[in-house]
Structures are given as structure tokens and as C-alpha cells.
Design brief:
Layout: E1 4-6, H1 12-15, H2 24-30, H3 35-48, E2 54-61, E3 64-75, E4 80-81, E5 88-89, H4 94-107, H5 133-137, H6 162-169, H7 186-200, H8 204-213, E6 222-223, E7 237-238, E8 245-246, E9 261-263, H9 265-276, H10 283-289, E10 308-312, E11 315-324, E12 327-334, E13 339-345, H11 352-365
Antiparallel strand pairs: 1-3, 2-3, 2-13, 3-4, 5-9, 6-9, 7-8, 10-11, 11-12, 12-13
Helix pairs in contact: 3-11, 4-7
Length: 374
């Protein structure tokens, strides 16, 4: 039977001391009584329709986790049920961590957002363009994304260096003049990871471990690698193009700072609360992260620094999704509701954003007491 945590399980206090589970009476003030039943039905529907293999879902109001639970299978071959403890690759949610790492270096006075990339990577050929760190963070650099190249998937298993990855795109013509358009670009975040390493004199992995994971007590978050033993690591699956199969191998040096992390639903709630409560960044840095960027003509884009800023269910949201071989993820925060929803999945056909949207819509419709903050 799948292990689960809910509002009734106070032993969660022993596992994550900086968050706490509400008692049943308290929980009625922050979540409807039928929340778990509703989430169960949404998750199982996705599994029964073969859109999902395993799911872990976490929901928090403020600092209180009101639901953390697993569904389906974390490993079909070993018959391991998914629980709230499973570690999933989170793909592009990694970009939030990369953006925060850059902002930590900004706070230390070591870099500025409008510094040119060539200040840190002087040999990078910008082809007479001025590319700033802000352009890279906001996907407005115009640099070609290496994950959009025709041979990208054929190269995923290769053990690569930074120079190998850069060679794939650095000489390609820019898509547009930096700052004039928004176009999602994994190359930009790969380059930001290199900047972090050059400035901090630490590997990207070491920087996150010492400056982010440890301070926030994120004990089940990793730079995902094949060789280390990671407890509760879920297996990834694919349904695209035919019957269900194990997802193909990807060397995690390839996504790097654009998508190489793995985590759990509870750790990602810790992450979001750490940002919101300014436990990691100064308030002005978090404000920069969560404010829409603007193009050179003044037009706003729906992206800050490592965050999408959109309206969902008629409410403002801040978050990011992720997709990588065998896994899909979604982390969303509703500021007015002080509501965080995390959905992690180990199948590349799953749509976590849809599941998250359904859960939020249910909470909004339920008119939970004091749901919306003034």
C-alpha cells in the first residue's frame, strides 16, 4: 500500500522541522474536508487513463503542508509504489535554482544582472551582439537553444564537457537581436551555470549544495547523476511512439543548469517557502525573480528570472514546469491564496500542470475559509 501523509499525520513534524502539518481542526480553515478525496480522484484518473505511471503531489497553504501523497508506481519492474518520498527528475524547475544562484552572487556584489556574458566567458562568440545575464535569465538573448537542434535526442547519452555542449550552438546565427523577443532557451541557462562556476569557483552542484540546499534544509534534492545511490529515486518511463517502455538514458551533464536536478514534493515546498519567506534571498531579489521582464520596446513578457508569471484559474501565479526524459513536473504558487502545489510524475506523457490546475480550481471553488489574502 502506498505510504501517505495527510493533515492527520503529525509525525511529519519530526521529518521536516521548519514546516508543520495542521491538526484536523486547523486544516479545515485552510483546506476543504474533501481535498484528499478530490486529489485521489484526479491522480487515479490520470493513472487509469495511462497518462501517468507514478505521481507524487504536495499541497501547502502558507507554511502548512495539507497534503503530501504518492499514487501509482515508482518502479514497475520492482513493483515499488509511489509515495510522497519519491525523488523525481524535475527538469526545467532547475532554472529557478539557477536564477536564485545568480541573484545570490548579485547580492554579494560579484556580478550584476546587466553585465555582459563576455565578462565571464570572454571567448564566447556573441557575433557583435551584447548579451547580458538578464537576457539569459529572461530567455531574451536570441541565442539558439541546443535542445531544439535536430540531433539533440541522438546525443543525450554522451558524456560531455562544457566545450562539447557550447560547440553545438555557439557559432549558430542568433534568432533575433538580444532583448527584442522572448524565446525559451536552454542554452541561456547552460551558460548561466558556467557563469556561476567561474565566479564562485565551485562546481554548479557544489554551489547549490552549500548555498541553497543546506541553508533551506532540502535534504532530498540533488544534482541528479546516475552513479550515486539516491534513496527513493523513481524510475522514468515513456509512452511516446508505442507501448510503455523504460525512458532512454540521458547523461545529466547535458541539461546541466537548465534541467539536471531531482527532488521531492516536500523539498520543493520548502524551496518555494524559502523564497517567499526570504530565507535565501533578500526581498528585493525575490521581487526581481517574480516580476515580469520587459523587452527593449517596453513590452512585458510572462517571465521573470527563472519564473513564469501567468494567470491560471483567474488568479496570478508564479511557477515553473519541467520535462526531461521519462519525467514531468510542475511547481506553482498562487500568491493571493498563499497556495503552493507541486506535482511530480515519472512518465513523459503526464501533464502535471493540468493536474495542478484542477486541484487549484477545486480549492478556489470550495470557497475555503480565508482562502484569499487581502
Amino acid at each position: 500500500m502506498s505510504c501517505q501523509w495527510s493533515v492527520k499525520h503529525l509525525n511529519f513534524l519530526l521529518l521536516i522541522p521548519c514546516l508543520f502539518i495542521a491538526t484536523h481542526v486547523q486544516a479545515q480553515e485552510i483546506a476543504p474536508a474533501d481535498l484528499e478525496t478530490f486529489v485521489d480522484s484526479v491522480a487515479m484518473e490520470s493513472i487509469e487513463k495511462q497518462a501517468s505511471i507514478g505521481l507524487s503531489i504536495g499541497i501547502a497553504r502558507g507554511d502548512q503542508i495539507v497534503l503530501a501523497k504518492g499514487y501509482g508506481s515508482a518502479d514497475l519492474e520492482l513493483d515499488v509504489p509511489a509515495t510522497e518520498k519519491m525523488v523525481y527528475r524535475i527538469g526545467s524547475i532547475t532554472k529557478q535554482f539557477t536564477a536564485a544562484a545568480i541573484l545570490l552572487l548579485v547580492e554579494e556584489g560579484k556580478i550584476k544582472l546587466d553585465d555582459p556574458l563576455t565578462k565571464f566567458l570572454p571567448d564566447y562568440p556573441t557575433q557583435s551582439h551584447v548579451v547580458t545575464l538578464r537576457h539569459l535569465l529572461q530567455h531574451t538573448s536570441g541565442i539558439k537553444s541546443f535542445t531544439s537542434l535536430p540531433n539533440y535526442r541522438q546525443l543525450l547519452s554522451q558524456n560531455v564537457t562544457h566545450e562539447d555542449i557550447l560547440a553545438r550552438f555557439k557559432e549558430m546565427p542568433f534568432n533575433f537581436e538580444p532583448g527584442t523577443k522572448f524565446k525559451y532557451c536552454n542554452s541561456g541557462y547552460y551558460l548561466l551555470g558556467m557563469v556561476i562556476e567561474n565566479v564562485s569557483e565551485l562546481s554548479y552542484d557544489e554551489f547549490l549544495q552549500t548555498r541553497v540546499f543546506k541553508p533551506l534544509k532540502m535534504n532530498t534534492t540533488y544534482y541528479d547523476k546516475a552513479s550515486p545511490i539516491i534513496p527513493n529515486r523513481a524510475s522514468g518511463y515513456s509512452r511516446w511512439g508505442g507501448k510503455l517502455r523504460n525512458a532512454g538514458f540521458i547523461n545529466m551533464k547535458q541539461p546541466f543548469a537548465a534541467g539536471a536536478m531531482a527532488s521531492t514534493v516536500t523539498d520543493l515546498i520548502l524551496w518555494q517557502r524559502g523564497l517567499h519567506n526570504n530565507s535565501l534571498l533578500k526581498p528585493e531579489s525575490y521581487q526581481l525573480m517574480t516580476t515580469r521582464g520587459t523587452l527593449s520596446d517596453g513590452k512585458a513578457i510572462n517571465y521573470g528570472l527563472g519564473t513564469f508569471i501567468r494567470k491560471i484559474n483567474g488568479k496570478q501565479t508564479i511557477g515553473h514546469g519541467g520535462g526531461i526524459t521519462g519525467f514531468r513536473s510542475d511547481l506553482i504558487y498562487y500568491p493571493k491564496l498563499d497556495l503552493t502545489i507541486v506535482v511530480l510524475a515519472n512518465c513523459d506523457r503526464t501533464n502535471p500542470a493540468r493536474i495542478s490546475k484542477q486541484i487549484a480550481a477545486h480549492l478556489i471553488k470550495s470557497k475555503t475559509k480565508n482562502l484569499e489574502k487581502p
